[in-house]
Structure formats: C-alpha cells, structure tokens
Design brief:
The chain has 226 residues and is mostly helical. Among the domains are: 60 residues, lambda repressor-like DNA-binding domains (434 Repressor (Amino-terminal Domain), Orthogonal Bundle); 68 residues. The chain is 61% helix and 0% strand. The chain has 10 helices and no strands. α6 packs antiparallel against α7, α6 crosses α10 and α7 packs antiparallel against α8. The longest helix has 24 residues. It starts with a helix and ends with a helix. The mean pLDDT is 82.
C-alpha cells in the first residue's frame, strides 16, 4: 500500500523531470527497486532515505510525510502570521478588487479547514493543505517568473515541470480527500451542511463561501455542452 513516503518520493522525482532510471542511477539502486519504493510495495532502509534526502535537498521529516516544510522546520499555529489579523496594514496597498478577492478566498478556505478540523481526521486537513498549497505554488511561480530574478535553486522544480507536477499533486490530493470522505471504516464526522447550518455556524464567512462556489459553478456550467 502506498504511504506518504512513497508519494513524496515519486513527487520529488517527477518535480525534477527525472525518469525512474535516471533517479535510480543517482540514488545507487535499480529502477525496479525505486519503482517498488514509489508505489509502496517495499519500504527502504535508513541509508536509502538519507541518500534520497541529500539528493532532493529535503529533510527526513518531509520525505516521510511528517511535515509540509521541506527543510523540516516546525510550524506552530500560534507563531504563524495570520493575514486576517493584519493590524499594521502590510497588505493595505492592494486594490479594492484584490482585497475583496483575498478576503473571500480566505473566508471560504477557513470554513473548509474548520470543517476538516471538526471531522476528527488529521489526514483530511493535511490533504487540504497539500491541495491549496499546489494552487498557491503555481500562481506564485507564475508571478515570480515575471520578476526577472529567477534565482537558480530557488525552486526545486525546473520550469518545464512545475505546472504539470503541481497539477498532478493537486489531483492526487483531491483523490485522497474523496477517499477519506467516502471511506466506510471510520469515516470523518462532518457536521450537517446546509445553507441554514452554514449560516448559523459561520455567519461572517458563509457569504464568501457561497459566492465563490456559485460563481465557479456558473463558469463550469457555461462550459458544458448545451
């Protein structure tokens, strides 16, 4: 069965546009063994994990799926800056439209993470972070590429791969979210969700969530065959 390690190992290779053969050569193992590691059919020993961390430039905690931060630095919810509490107006230079969009997206995502937290499923919150992180990565990379300061090594994925690699990772996160939501054994305990319950539980946030959802639904509907 595939594990967080196997998923991250495969993602790191694809992120660098490496074939299994090339990656296996660099890591000093056979292509067949690397394939087994990437599918979760076999588990590696510590020497291989060390080599893989050095080769991809990540921490052991990251490659084992214990943290979302590549260098292994710990993230504490109490110490991470919250843009919603921007008392010094660091983001105050934004236009009205960008400020509105930011607030609507933050409000909507906040509802989803709160629902995930209340479900009792740590994996659900992790995959939500992975999914939205992929979208943030893609957009930031697009913006960064126009700055003219594409620093060598700033991003681990080359320009040929960051779009497809992040889309693939987002698709896998979405698939895992669906699997978690619909699992028959120990399913997440999501509260009842309706317009009334959302309005009661999230009176300040629900309008943003429903507005974005309806707008996205309308755009999707227009693309369907008539």
């Amino acid at each position: 069965m595939a594990t967080d390690f196997s998923r991250v190992l495969a993602f790191l290779r694809k992120e660098r546009c490496l074939s299994q053969r090339k990656a296996a050569e660099a890591l000093g193992i056979s292509q067949a063994l690397l394939s087994h590691y990437e599918t979760g059919a076999r588990e590696p020993g510590l020497p291989f994990i060390t080599r893989a961390c050095d080769f991809y430039g990540v921490s052991s905690d990251y490659i084992l799926g214990r943290t979302l931060v590549r260098d292994g630095a710990a993230f504490d919810p109490e110490t991470v800056y919250d843009a919603q509490e921007d008392k010094q107006n660091r983001l105050g230079r934004a236009s009205v439209s960008s400020m509105l969009g930011r607030k609507m997206v933050i409000n909507s995502i906040s509802v989803l993470f709160d629902l995930a937290g209340r479900s009792g499923s740590t994996a659900l919150a992790t995959e939500l972070t992975n999914y939205f992180g992929g979208a943030v990565y893609k957009m930031f990379r697009h913006f960064y590429s126009l700055s003219g300061s594409e620093e060598q090594g700033f991003f681990s994925a080359p320009s040929c791969a960051y779009g497809p690699a992040s889309e693939s990772d987002m698709a896998q996160s979405e698939a895992r979210i669906l699997a978690i939501l619909h699992q028959k054994k120990d399913p997440p305990q999501l509260p009842g969700i309706s317009n009334n319950t959302l309005a009661k539980e999230y009176p300040q946030l629900v309008r943003s969530l429903l507005t974005l959802a309806h707008q996205a639904g309308d755009r999707a509907a227009k693309k369907l065959p008539q």
